[in-house]
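Hello forum,

I keep getting stuck at the same step: I have a sequence, I want structure tokens, and every attempt I make locally crashes halfway through. Rather than fight my setup again tonight, could one of you with a working pipeline run this one for me? It's a single chain of 129 residues.
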Amino acid sequence: MRLLTHNLLACHAKGCGNSSKNFPLQLRNVQLELIEADYNDTFLKGFLPKLHWPALVGAARQLGQTSLPEQEPDFTQQEPSDELLQALHHILLELHIAEGEMVCPNCGHVYAIRSGIPNMLLAEHEIPK
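Reply #2:
Ran it on my machine without issues. Output:
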């Protein structure tokens, strides 16, 4: 699973789905893989408005990645630098979580990641009605 995917996932377990505290999911016991990907600055620039910057930086820090600035740059005022785009490319597209867990900071629900695939399925009793 890429951090690009992680930046889009939130907990939807019963009693948690509409909470503003169900995102971002916390990473735990992760095993990382580095898988090279073709660099595409057009894709990265197009995806920037969709990113939740604090969640991305927090997840990157949990994985030992410190190349992103803590404060989100103002991309409406200036184009992102090539250095920043390269860092985003590496963190969003080349770092893969092969195994581990994502834990909801609100309700504590654990979502497993196995073979790079996050299991976001809920048991019947966990599904909001």
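The chain has one domain: 3-69+79-126. If your local run keeps crashing, start a new thread with the error log.
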